[in-house]
Amino acid sequence: MTTIADHDAYIAAAPEQFQPALAHLRAILARVLPEADEIVAYNMPGFRIDGTVVASYAAFSKQCGLYLLPGAISAHAEGIAAAGLKATKTGITFSLRTPIPDDLVERLARASREDAQA
What we know:
Blueprint: H1 7-13, H2 19-32, E1 37-41, E2 44-49, E3 52-59, E4 64-68, H3 70-75, H4 77-82, E5 86-87, E6 91-94, H5 102-117
Antiparallel strand pairs: 1-2, 2-3, 3-4, 4-6, 5-6
Helix pairs in contact: 1-2, 2-5
């Protein structure tokens, strides 16, 4: 497995059809979490604040994922379900046909930051 150096390299190596969605997700997260450092952990791009990874994302063969702290997912479970998305304790998977709405990404990122600070 190739080690990914940074967010740009990750997006460039992702399946071509997901590259625009990943770049868009990265831009939203960077805007909402301006104090975060962009990092790569476990071969996945993420955003770290004070030593805690508060958001990360990934691409797979048929879908993408957004990963956050558990409190953010549970706080927005209704919004996630209303958007027609499935979530685990720490992640939400989405396809190009059913992307995560931008406003939900913003709310989730803020909630994950708050969860880290609590």
